[in-house]
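Subgroup meeting minutes
Present: P.N., E.W., G.H.
Scribe: E.W.

1. P.N. recapped why we're keeping a running log of single-chain structure predictions: easier to compare across weeks, and new members can see raw inputs and outputs side by side.
2. G.H. added today's entry (539 aa).
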Amino acid sequence: MKFGQLATTEGLILAHTLRLSSGEVFKKGRRLSALDVKTLCADGLQTVWAAQLEPEDCDEDEAASALAESVRGEGVRRADAATGRCNLFAEHAGLLAIDAERVRALNRLSPDLTLATLPLHSVVRRDDMLATIKIIPFAVPGALLRQADALARASLAATERLIRVLPFEARRMGLILTMTKGLPDSMLDRAAAAQRVRADRLGSVVSDEIRTAHTESAIASALASLCAAGCDPVLILGASAIVDRRDVIPSAIEQLGGTVIHLGMPVDPGNLLLIGRVGQTRVLGVPGCARSLRRSGFDFVLERLCAGLDVTADDVMDLGVGGLLHEGPWRPTPRAQPVLPPSVAAVVLAAGRSQRMGASNKLLERLDGKPLVCHTVDELLQTGVRPIVVVTGHQSENVRAALSGRQVVFVDNPQFADGLSSSLRVGLAQLDSSIDGALICLGDMPKVRREHIESLLGAFEPSDGREIIVPTFAGRRGNPVLWAARYFPMMKELSGDLGARELQKRFVDRVCLVPMPDDAVTIDVDTKEALDSLRSVGA
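Output recorded in log:
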């Protein structure tokens, strides 16, 4: 390829944008036609800075597209090339696999060819950009492109190409949570929920959960049960961290005839991770930092297992570069100033007329010996959620009387007939700037328990992007929903009876779905038939 200030002739590729005296603009990269040449010469431009391709040259877009085809493997698609750039995207969710050595070798062939990728083993979603190819000059020699193609296609198998996406394999995981005296149930609930979220994001499910004492025999018994049930991998999250290969959890693995493959990893948080095996079942001793959903070394290992990769001791020990991660709020001995967990309030919507129930107020109907509205509030009172704001409206005095003696803040909504959004507005107005989030609760969900609420609280981490926490069961979204404070102004602008569903769609990348072990989060009481059904179940 020739490049420089060349005589204006047909076929040249402009190196810079030209603005003619007529006001017409010839953009950089334009290939000159016979008419273009006539126009430029008439404007006094007898020479231009340009590129002239030679017979063996491949223009930038053709070269970028060809190189993209050479490097892309399974699960990767390419976009059309433009201005010498061709982007690669994920065809499905999974783990990004890259032959890093060959990528480095390709980039060393010539500064004219560049390939930039996401980090190795990144978790990607469908349509995420994985890599970009940029041809620096307007053309490259065909010989260079053939050399790059040969390097990229060291094997014709797509599974051996430089860039591919490994799909996550659906797995039935087992979870063992150990308990010691004084360990609060809320910590176990949040830890279990975090593992359910992790599994769900990787296309898997925690199908079996066992809570047991933190002793060698109890853990071994639970582990044997989960192995027999076909769970793989089995996650063991101990009440006490694993500090030695002879500690309780590794001893339990060996008691079953299993093997401890590796203990410890150069990733922080996540140092105290164990990899073991009992028969064909992989066993992970989970570090305590995994009680939070904030990313840790445990995620590195679990993601690779779910993508069908084996994880060896050498793999773990190679994770040190890039292994210093951000700290979560739950770490007992932080590296620096501790981060406090978010402050969460609750808004209980108890103002509606319950018209589908006929003449009665459904919130005052009794179930299991107490009014319906008391079930929601009593479960909230067992958590750290404060304040608990109860919005009343229809039969306000009767609802307040039903909740008499409970530590809640009452506020009346005189416009309750305008719909649920009016009560939401009134309730949020009671929260001050110290509140990081609010749990929006319906007053007619009597099966929601403390452990469901704790699961949502454990997933809430606005600083880490988890700002809207939604419970699910069997793929259905339910209630209550936990919202970060930054959405309060938008929620106050809502109208009608639909609540904040549209905001969930609008900010989908900030939604964290938390799978629940039962259907309590999808059960509300809108009719007499629904209430009678609940009563018959409890009878």
